[in-house]
Amino acid sequence: MAEARFTNGKNLGTGIGLRVPHYDHILREKPAVDWFEIISENYMVAGGRPLAVLDAIMDQYQVVMHGVGMYPGNGNGLDMDHLRRLKKLIKRTNTPWISDHLCWGSVDGSVSHDLLPLPFTFEVARKTAENLRIAQDFLEIPLAMENVSSYAEFTIDQMTEWQFLAEVCELADVGILLDVNNIYVSSVNHGFDPMAYVNFIPSDRVAQIHIAGHSRYERFIIDTHDHPVIDPVWKLYARAIERCGPTATLLEWDASIPSFEEVWQEAKKSEQWRQGNQLENQPGGDDAAA
Ligand SMILES: [Fe+2]
How far, in Å, from the CA of 148 to the mean position of ligand 1? Predict the structure, then answer.
């Protein structure tokens, strides 16, 4: 059962992404952060400062690995060398699960370094789930798939994005990393109801939730991770917590990174919903802050 698989994850509390500008502050001040998420690929190296810092952080904190290079939707299968290197880091960090994105990103050895959207068809769902089963068996650790933000759709889609995410994760028997900011970004870009998305997700598979800010332009929203979380995204978060229960929550802030304290205070806002105060604290307003 997926629910039993992610029991520990649901109790992790509030985390933020471990980022280079905050290294010194964290090591010096040892702030009371519940956990840190690391980008796996940044630490899949032979040695040097990144691994030395990671080891020092792990002396004090729980670390959870989040990848950007698995590309489970690739049509020509998985990069097993990548998975071997990933497995080595998993053994080092003792991460309770690992996450990556439900996307594709490379073909015939050429890597885009982008999280590219998949066509939402039953055939693609089946092939992607096959890859995920292979990856989860090989890595010997629970996987969670994150919904990506997207800027293009396929005319051959046979289902909605939320149906596709649920279909793949059920077929592969993996968890979900629900990014409520990505849901909001894609809902504006493609014109769907983001609450319908949150309401459909199989809640017992949600291992972790991402919150983040973004940048709004005239026609599209770009998922820049460089602003505070806006109220419509907090509303999706509140609903996700209502459905999933208290779930490990991570604030992503990856560009124009402010002080550690500012990022941490923004992340901690999520606690009011996890502590069951959603009625008194229900946010209002629109996305004017974006
Ligand atoms: Fe995310």
Answer: 7
- For the residues 219-223, what does the mean pLDDT come to? 80
At 145-158, the pLDDT tens digits run: 999 998 889 999 99
Q: Residue 161 C-alpha to ligand 1 middle, in angstroms?
A: 16
Residue for token pair 């890859």: 131
- The average pLDDT across 126-142 equals 97
* Residue 105 and residue 116 in contact, taking contact as beta carbons nearer than 8 Å: yes
Closest CA to 174 of 153, 215, 219, 205: 205
CA pair distance 126, 106, nearest whole angstrom = 18
Distance 182 CA to ligand 1 centre (A): 7
What does the mean pLDDT of the chain come to?
90
CA of 100 to the centre of ligand 1 (A): 9
Other beta carbons within 10 angstroms of residue 215's beta carbon come to 16
Q: Which residues have a beta carbon within 5 Å of ligand 1, which is an ion?
A: 179, 210
Contact predicate 128/148, CB 8 Å: no
pTM over 0.85: yes
For 97-109, the pLDDT digits (tens) are: 999 999 999 888 7
**Structure tokens given for 20:** 């280079």
Q: Where are the domains of the chain?
A: 2-274
Going from the Cα of 13 to the center of ligand 1, the distance in angstroms, rounded, reads 17
CATH number of 2-274: 3.20.20.150
Residue 281 is predicted with a pLDDT of: 43
Distances (CA, A) of 229 to 11, 78, 162, 186, 283: 22, 34, 22, 15, 11
